[in-house]
Amino acid sequence: FGGGVELNNGNIAANSGQVLIGSLGANSRVLLSPELIPKYDPGTRFQDISLTQSSNIVTNGSGGQVLLQGQNISILDRSFILNTAFGSSTVGNIGLFADETIAISGLGISFSSLPSATVGTNFSLESRRLLLEDGAVIVGGTLGDSDGGSITINATESVELTGSSDFVPSLITT
Q: Which of 94, 106, 121, 126 has the most neighbouring CB atoms within 10 Å?
């Protein structure tokens, strides 16, 4: 937790673990619940989070979780977030929460359940604006009989999907 979080050509991996990133403004506090989930004071001011230059955050296995909380969240330049569920596990989660804009360009966010999984991953996004461009994707699914997870998007002002890569248009799908 800290102010102005940038991951430039970096990798974060958590096998059956959690990646929790909160970009806090000055004089802000965060408390952790017994489950290690961050709890922010009401009125907390956040700063920006950016993943650039092919950066990635990867969780997999039993109950992998990625939670990002900031003023703006940018996932750019072929950067991505990946969650793959397998085995008898608790549900995985990917959550992006921004006070203003979430912008994804290039790759994006993918989550899936392998044939051995009993549950999928849930994806939640909350912001004023969501922008996917240049072939960015939010994609989930399953490779077996398990629950493929869900996508929940709450963008209070706009959702914009523009452009494409050499392979796919910008899209949201399960």
A: 121
Sign of the torsion formed by the C-alpha atoms of 16, 122, 20 and 160: positive
Upper half-sphere CA count for residue 153 (Cβ side, 13 Å): 17
CA-based R_g, the chain, Å: 15
Most confident of 14-28, 53-67, 86-100, 120-134: 120-134
Could you give the C-alpha distances from 71 to 44, 138, 151, in angstroms and in order? 10, 20, 21
Q: Which residues contact 27 (CB under 8 A, 6 or more apart)?
A: none
Neighbours of 87 (CB within 10 A): 14
- Is the model's pLDDT at 1 over the cut of 60? no
**What secondary structure letter does DSSP report for 34?**
T
Q: Using alpha carbons, select from 53, 63, 79 the residue that is nearest to residue 19.
A: 63
Read off the pLDDT band of 69 (50, 70, 90): very high
130 has a pLDDT exceeding 70? yes
| Residue among 146, 140, 35 at smallest CA distance from 88 | 146
Q: Whole-number mean pLDDT of the chain?
A: 86
Q: Is 119 helix (H, G, I), strand (E, B) or coil?
A: coil
Strands 30-32 and 38-40 come out as: antiparallel
